[in-house]
Amino acid sequence: MREFNYARADSTRQAVSTHGRNDQAAYLAGGTTLLDLVKIDIMRPEQVVDINRLDLGGIETLDDGRVRIGALVTNTALARDERIQRDYAVLSEALLSGATTQLRNKATTAGNVMQRVRCPYFRDGVSSCNKREPGSGCAAIEGHNRSVHAVLGTSEHCIATHPSDMCVAMAAIGATITVEGPDGRREIDFLDFHLLPNDTPEREHNLKPGELITHVTLAAPLENSRSGYLKLRDRASYQFALASSAVIVTLDGDTIVEARVALGGVGTKPWRAFDAEKALKGQQISEATFKRAAEIALQGATPYAHNAFKIPLGQQAIVRNLTTLTA
């Protein structure tokens, strides 16, 4: 039994002040990641700051067409919001493909952004894991690395995939993350928020000590666009993606005017495939066009002993999604 201090904040300022710059403190919202990892002794916070009383549970459309989502909006509420279903179908579909109904009812937007990897070597507490214990090694590289290990963005220090479906959709849409911290407020581009492992896999995100996510703001929807999320997994429910794609396209007849493509299940962070998007833009709808873009999206992928299948599977996720959206 590990003891910790608990405080319930009534304002963002109070939450940030109570947390301070203490790297042994943690914010508590839905708790679906934090409490899980505390129970298995992977996270050991000395101070827990409960933020559930903060006024961060709303969704609003801004004057410029962007949609601002409060940090405490649950995954269920976000997926079922009429604006999200109408203008950002890819996000609603991604949310509804993840976890269970009970978890979606508790999990929050900010918590989803902050969720940690599902690598069993990270979670078992005893295996070598640079993310849990920097400098100890990465047992996954020579171990069983089939389902929750990446082929894009890996390093010799970590190959764990980022587990979020929601974040893959947001990577495709484009978004900014608003944070409050000891040094005030700042905005972070969504694609800059999650960090590649490189030599410092213990650094998973671009937050400074004590900073709290208050909002995620989605870019204005592309006019007359179609979007969808396709998740490929071992079974049809309650599983993390082996490979997934979030695709947004606008068409002029049979010509692709604009395309946005992001991948999940194959990268160490939500993976935006910019080169694939360029390959699609201005091209005629065809299976050949889709396959060429999919091949480009997985260029540079590094397969490991048990997950080489993720390269063609990731390509299939793109081709099938594009085929459905342009039918």
Short description:
The protein is an alpha+beta fold and 327 residues long. It has 14 helices and 12 strands. The chain has helices at residues 12-19, 34-39, 75-80, 82-87, 89-96, 101-106, 109-114, 120-123, 139-142, 166-173, 190-193, 274-280, 287-297, 310-325, and strands spanning 5-8, 25-28, 47-50, 59-61, 67-70, 175-181, 184-189, 212-218, 225-232, 243-252, 255-264, 271-272.
Folded structure, characterized:
The protein starts with a strand and ends with a helix. A 5-stranded antiparallel β-sheet has the order 4-5-8-6-7. A hairpin with a 6-residue loop joins strand 11 and strand 12. The protein has a domain of 101 residues: Enolase-like, domain 1 (2-Layer Sandwich). It is 31% helix and 21% strand. The mean pLDDT is 97. The longest helix is centred in the last third of the chain and has 16 residues. It comes from Kushneria pakistanensis. Pfam families: CO_deh_flav_C, FAD_binding_5.
Distance between the termini: 57 Å
Q: What series of H and E elements makes up the topology?
A: EHEHEEEHHHHHHHHEEHEEEEEHHH
Q: List the strand order in the largest sheet.
A: 4-5-8-6-7
Give the helix/strand class.
Answer: alpha+beta
Uncertain stretches: none
Shape: globular
How big a fraction of the residues is strand? 15-25%
Question: Briefly, what CATH class of one domain?
Answer: Alpha Beta
The largest pleated sheet is described as:
5 strands, antiparallel
Q: How many helices in DSSP terms?
A: 14
CATH topology of one domain, which one? Enolase-like, domain 1
**CATH A-level architecture of one domain:** 2-Layer Sandwich
CATH superfamily of one domain: CO dehydrogenase flavoprotein, C-terminal domain
Rounded mean pLDDT score: 97
Task: Round the Cα radius of gyration to an integer and report it.
Answer: 19 Å
Compute the number of strand runs.
12
